[in-house]
């Protein structure tokens, strides 16, 4: 699992930017649109809360960008909001503990008119398996011990070690057509895949237009280019302000937008339908490097025990709080059932104060704590673009002051996240979230090399119990056994206060004049325009 890789994906996954506008945070459900009268054609306008930058499915990392990938690129299997796997480019598959063989559908073509073959699918997997290519899925879904080969319309992926999650991991990779693999740089501002749509116009910072392809016949659940209700075009519009997006939904200027803040109330009152996606908005991570106060487990435990979890949770979720039951929050939600195996302790400021005393932080005459003459000061990061984060951070600051902790609040923009988490490492904790869909992806951030060493462990966590369990889970004999081990491992992270799952919420994507399925982001083949 340890490898050289750009930390950019980790930035995208951890900052989580809770104003989730069509981003990959998993889940589904919510209210369905009342109308079932579909009208084919027209334009589906969706809000993007940031410019996606590179559009490459191979290396693009921003959450907004990953939400756009499925419009032009299909996967071998479709994962539903309930975590079920359905045929997509592959019509069937057979698994062993160390391999999976997909039989691909006939007649699949690329947007450039070429045929999509099992050989191209194998080339995709082998490209992703090479760490030198620095791809999005390398090290998580596709690992260095995997290889792929084609035989006619069959694709076989082999793992050198037992892998209980071959279907969920390999089936999710978006397939690039051969010309795109041959020249990956062309994918940054153009598309070359088998998807229902292809990019036809891009205006950086403004709009991205995707046009429906003719002759598409291989979609999940029998979707074709002729399926009733599909739009002719999809336009992603960069709308960075939630209130503006809500106004556009109400006026008909948008068909879909993610609204995480207070504007959701007026959209509900107006009768707009929505689909919810889990958002671990209150999750807190800790910098455990030796020069930080949070390197001491007693300090981390004290900080969590001092918090009124319900009060902070209500603020950070804008009144839509729910308890986190897993650190895995994104589709396909592997190993979430029957969990968690951890239990968060009740708030106990007195015990928190005692733990700080054990750590050597003594209260002065003013009640504030110091060790060897150095004040106990915590640098707390939160997302400047998330409306509820600032108020919740101020509540944290006030509650920690009660036990003698000074807190510096830092509102981060994307540049700030990258600088503090990956360059200066000048942070202690904050509302910093991970959004993995499997415990294997979660392990990238806690197991193995730190980001200084080329890994994803930007927190500098060294949890021997977690690492030992992770080693066992990687090669468990079956998925049921693996999930049990992974849940034990997750408990080790929470109990040691490497992560504090304070609260999560359901961030809805609201619709107007259209509906769609949501499994983290909108599923393009499910979009239906309403009459």
Automatic annotation (TrEMBL):
Name the UniProt record assigns to this protein? ABC transporter substrate-binding protein
Top-rank lineage group of the source organism: Bacteria
Listed CDD domains: PBP2_NikA_DppA_OppA_like
What span is annotated as the signal peptide, if there is one?
A: 1-24
Q: Which family does it belong to?
A: Belongs to the bacterial solute-binding protein 5 family.
Q: Is Signal tagged as a keyword?
A: yes
Keyword check for Zinc: no
Q: Which PROSITE patterns does the protein's record reference?
A: PROKAR_LIPOPROTEIN (PS51257)
Which UniProt keywords are listed?
Signal, Transport
Q: Where is the Solute-binding protein family domain?
A: 84-439
């Amino acid at each position: 699992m340890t490898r050289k890789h750009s930390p950019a994906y980790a930035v995208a996954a951890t900052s989580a930017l809770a104003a989730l506008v069509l981003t990959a945070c998993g889940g589904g459900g919510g209210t369905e649109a009342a109308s079932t009268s579909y009208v084919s054609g027209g334009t589906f306008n969706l809000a993007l809360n940031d410019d996606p930058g590179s559009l490459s499915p191979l290396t693009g990392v921003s959450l907004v960008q990953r939400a756009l990938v499925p419009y032009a690129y299909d996967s071998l299997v479709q994962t539903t909001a309930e975590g079920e796997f359905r045929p997509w480019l592959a019509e069937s598959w057979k698994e062993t503990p160390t391999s999976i063989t997909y039989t691909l559908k006939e007649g699949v073509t690329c947007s450039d008119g070429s045929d999509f073959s099992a050989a191209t699918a194998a080339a995709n997997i082998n490209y992703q398996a090479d760490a030198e290519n620095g791809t999005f899925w390398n090290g998580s879904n596709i690992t260095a011990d995997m290889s792929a080969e084609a035989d006619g319309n069959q694709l076989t992926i082999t793992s050198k070690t037992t892998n209980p999650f071959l279907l969920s991991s390999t089936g999710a990779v978006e397939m690039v057509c051969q010309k795109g693999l041959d020249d990956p740089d062309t994918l940054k501002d153009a598309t070359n895949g088998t998807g229902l749509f292809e990019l036809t116009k891009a205006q950086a910072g403004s709009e991205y237009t995707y046009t429906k392809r003719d002759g598409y016949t291989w979609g999940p659940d029998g979707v074709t280019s002729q399926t009733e209700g599909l739009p002719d075009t999809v336009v992603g519009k960069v709308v960075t302000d939630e209130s503006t997006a809500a106004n556009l939904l109400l006026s008909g200027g948008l068909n879909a937008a993610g609204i995480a803040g207070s504007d959701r109330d007026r959209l509900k009152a107006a009768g707009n339908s929505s689909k919810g996606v889990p958002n671990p908005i209150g999750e807190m991570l800790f910098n455990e490097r030796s020069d930080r106060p949070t390197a001491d487990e007693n300090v981390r435990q004290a900080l969590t025990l001092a918090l009124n979890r319900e009060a902070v949770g209500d603020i950070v979720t804008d009144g839509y709080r729910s308890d986190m039951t897993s650190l895995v929050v994104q589709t396909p939600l592997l190993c979430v059932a029957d969990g968690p195996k951890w239990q968060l302790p009740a708030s106990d400021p007195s015990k928190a104060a005692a733990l700080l005393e054990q750590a050597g932080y003594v209260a002065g005459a003013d009640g504030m704590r110091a060790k060897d003459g150095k004040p106990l000061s915590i640098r707390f990061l939160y997302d400047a673009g998330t409306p509820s984060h600032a108020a919740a951070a101020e509540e944290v600051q006030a509650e920690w002051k009660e036990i003698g902790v000074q807190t510096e609040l830092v509102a981060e923009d994307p540049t700030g996240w990258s600088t503090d988490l990956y360059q200066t490492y000048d942070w202690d904790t904050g509302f910093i979230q991970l959004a993995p869909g499997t415990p294997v992806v979660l392990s990238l951030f806690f197991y193995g090399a730190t980001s200084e060493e080329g890994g994803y462990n930007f927190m500098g966590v060294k949890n021997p119990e977690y690492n030992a369990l992770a080693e066992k889970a990687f090669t468990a004999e079956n998925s049921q056994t693996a999930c049990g081990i992974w849940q034990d491992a997750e408990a080790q992270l929470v109990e040691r206060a490497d992560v504090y799952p304070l609260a999560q919420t359901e961030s809805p994507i609201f619709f107007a004049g259209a509906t769609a399925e949501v499994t983290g982001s909108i599923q393009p083949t499910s979009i239906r325009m309403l009459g």
